[in-house]
Amino acid sequence: MHPIEALKALERDAVDAIDSASDSDRLEDVRVEYLGRKDGRISAILRGLGAMDPTERPAVGQEANRVKDVVSTRLQGRLDDLTTADSGSAVDLTLPGRERWRGGWHPITRVVDEIWSIFRELGFTRARGPEADTEWYNFEALNTPLDHPAADEQDTLYLVDSVLLRSHTSPVQMRTMEAYEPPIRIIAPGWVYRRDTYDATHTPAFQQIEGLVVDEGITFVDFKATLAEFARRFWGPGTRIRFRPSFFPFTEPSAEVDVKRVIARPDGTSFETDWIEIMGSGMVDPNVIENAGYDSERYRGFAFGMGPGRIAMLKYGVTDLRAFFDNDVRFLSQFAS
């Protein structure tokens, strides 16, 4: 058979073999059979060009290169088809689509921001202070002697000398009064640290929100009305508050504040909850006012402190405080928006 006719026959055989290849392994066998450098059938013809009649050599060489290009192109096309088929078969179209996970504000941060927004509307300014403070600001300036149990190393985290991690946000009261003249009306959210056991209701590091009002003519009526208005705005218009006598070194008189909320049922009815404690509070002790350099005969004030973590537990129906700090995305994703 003439070499050119033999090449055309090889082309037909190669195309048929390529088209009938059922997988990439079989396709590779076809490539080696026809285009392999050592034993490839088309390559063998190209290697034999030197022994041919010089007058036929150009035409045979041209035809061999054409057939080689056709076979190479056909091989690549068939390989693409097989690859697409393989990848398509691995896709399960019945599976739900994957959505990008969206982050959101932490639930306690949401509560802090909501509390702050309410007091901002009531005329308060946001204040802050250092988390590492001195015994003076954390205890003594707030009418708490250093022999008080709260100042013991079993309760407070000391760093060096008289420097400690603040155990409440109340030091911001004194720092604000030292820096500004009355009237003062501040909210001071921030992290505090105590040697507490990590359990369902306690963590060694948690957020607290301090409030302070100092001015001339401040009375217990102003104090009660401010907290009652906050409770109604945060918990709902039917919320009631009560004050229970208590003791804090830096306030006199002192009180625990409880709320009784109105909860709406899905059927349109509602019910009242039990009384729930939400904060400690009181009228600022005159000694604290004097420590700030104010005249306690002229100025009076009230202060309060609350834990947004525990308030978040009540707001969202969470029974274990640790759930907010375990970084479980399944839990935190409920609050993403």
Secondary structure layout:
Blueprint: H1 3-20, H2 24-35, H3 41-47, H4 57-89, H5 107-121, E1 125-126, E2 132-134, H6 135-138, E3 158-160, E4 163-165, H7 171-179, E5 184-193, E6 205-216, H8 220-235, E7 240-248, E8 251-260, E9 262-264, E10 270-272, E11 276-284, H9 286-291, E12 299-306, H10 308-316, H11 329-332
Parallel strand pairs: 1-5
Antiparallel strand pairs: 2-4, 3-4, 5-6, 6-12, 7-8, 8-11, 9-10, 11-12
Helix pairs in contact: 1-2, 1-4, 2-4, 5-10
Tell me about this structure.
The protein is an alpha+beta fold. The protein folds into 2 domains: 3-89; 107-335, BirA Bifunctional Protein, domain 2. Helices cover 39% and strands 22% of the residues. The chain contains 11 helices and 12 strands. The strands form 3 sheets. Strands 1-5-6-12-11-8-7 form a 7-stranded mixed sheet, sandwiched between helices. The protein has a 3-stranded antiparallel sheet with strand order 2-4-3. Strand 9 and strand 10 form a beta hairpin. Helix 1 (3-20) packs antiparallel against helix 2 (24-35), helix 1 (3-20) runs parallel beside helix 4 (57-89) and helix 5 packs across helix 10. The two termini are 78 Å apart. The model has no long low-confidence stretch (mean pLDDT 87).
